[in-house]
Every structure is written in C-alpha cells, then in structure tokens.
Amino acid sequence: MTKSCVAVRHVAFEDLGLLGPLVSARGYDVRYHDAGVEPFDADTLIAPDLVIVLGGPIGVYETETYPFIVDEIAAIAARVHSNKPILGICLGAQMIAAALGARVAPGPVKEIGYAPLTLSEAGKRSALAPLGGAPVLHWHGDNCELPAGCERLASTPHCPVQAFARAPTQLALQFHLETQPARLEAWLVGHTVELNKAGIDPRQLREEARTLGPAVRDVGSKVLSGWLDIVAGAQS
C-alpha cells in the first residue's frame, strides 16, 4: 500500500530537494501543502504517514502579518502530540518549537553559509551522527529555545539549539541538509534582499556551494536516509 507524505512549503524554491527522491524511494506518495494558500485545520497534518515542514523567510512570531501561522502551528502541534513522524527544517523546526511552547526570536546574527555544527552526546547517538564535523548549509536569523521534553542534538556558537528531537521520529533541524548544490542559484535569487541586508555576497555562497556542496550533499543524503529508515522501523 502506498504511504502518504505531506510537505508543507512556504516558498516554491525551498522544496524537498534531496529528500524528494529519498522519500519516494521508500514508497511515499508526496503532496505539497502550500502554507498561506491552502488552509490548515486541526486535522490537516494528522492523516499523512509522514509530514515534513520546510523553510521560509518569515518568523513564527509574525502572526499579525501572516495570520495563517497560527493555524499552521496548531496543526503541527496536533501532529506532534499524535506522536506521528515529523521533520521540521529551518522555519519548520521553529514551528515545531513554537508548537511545543518554546520561544522563537531573532538570534544575535544571521547564520548564512556553509559551516560545521557541534553535535551533543545525544546528537552523536542520533541520525545526525554521520555529520561529525562536516559543514552544513545555514540560512536563518531566528533561534529557538529547547522545548520541554526534547533533546538538544546540535549547536553553533550563535545558535545553541541547531537541532532537537522529541522522539527519534520527530526531528527538528535549523540547518539545511536537503538543499541541492546545483539548485542553490534559486536561493540566491529568491533571498537577494535578505543577502543584501546581511551584507553577504552571493558569489561567496556560490563558491562555497561549488567547493563544499558535493560533500554536504553526500553526508546530507546519508543523514536523511538514516532518519527515514528510523521512521520506517517505527512504522513497521
């Protein structure tokens, strides 16, 4: 029987990336749910076998400007508390944190570019273990507190909670493992205003993607595949 995966998307170019073929290869029928265009209700994210909440350039606290965020967080909370598999990436991770009652706010700096993480002891025992000291793609300005009942898996000096898990099948990543280096140009165009405000030259990121991207892609695929295997084991 075909399994269902819903990917919550906030901007078109921040899609499943590397995750797309990995999820499809495991028998999931993938459907995108476009936040802000398609409504959320309490049951929107309950039925799918797998939910992945992707990134985007808004903050979870901007509810007056983007009212759909309230319903999205409620739908994510319902999913999390149903103990079903969910992966949050960047904004998606912050949405999970907010759904669990943790504070999300602008961090001290914008982390944009390729740089390594520090794995916690729990992180070294998790699906993130293959990362080691490998660089990953960072692209966020907001940080979240560690939600109650969750384990911190990774950190950087400016972002103490780079990854956390409520359970092995419920994972939140502030960074991007799914981004395909060959498609980074879409990010450079789509986030041009943010890059300009942060004083970051797109040519620097383009060069990092050229030199570091292939290795990041390989280790990212290994981590994401490992997590999907954990989900498959829990669902069998």
Looking at CATH, the homologous superfamily is Class I glutamine amidotransferase (GATase) domain
At CATH level 2, the architecture is: 3-Layer(aba) Sandwich
Continuous helix count: 7
- Return residue spans where pLDDT drops below 50 for at least 5 consecutive residues: none
Shape: globular
**Structural Rg:** 16 Å
Query: Can you tell me the CATH class?
Result: Alpha Beta
The percentage of residues in β strands lies in 25-35%
What can be said about this structure in brief?
The chain is of the alpha/beta class and 236 residues long. The chain has helices at residues 19-25, 68-81, 91-99, 121-124, 184-190, 192-198, 202-235; strands at 3-9, 28-34, 50-53, 86-89, 104-116, 118-119, 135-144, 151-156, 159-167, 170-173.
Folded structure, characterized:
Strand 9 (159-167) and strand 10 (170-173) form a beta hairpin. The strands form two sheets. Strands 2-1-3-4-10-9-8-6 form an eight-stranded mixed beta sheet, sandwiched between helices. It has seven helices and ten strands. The longest helix is centred in the C-terminal third of the chain and has 34 residues, at 202-235. It has helices at 19-25, 68-81, 91-99, 121-124, 184-190, 192-198, 202-235, and strands at residues 3-9, 28-34, 50-53, 86-89, 104-116, 118-119, 135-144, 151-156, 159-167, 170-173. The mean pLDDT is 96. It has one domain (3-235): Class I glutamine amidotransferase (GATase) domain (Rossmann fold, 3-Layer(aba) Sandwich), CATH 3.40.50.880. It is an alpha/beta fold.
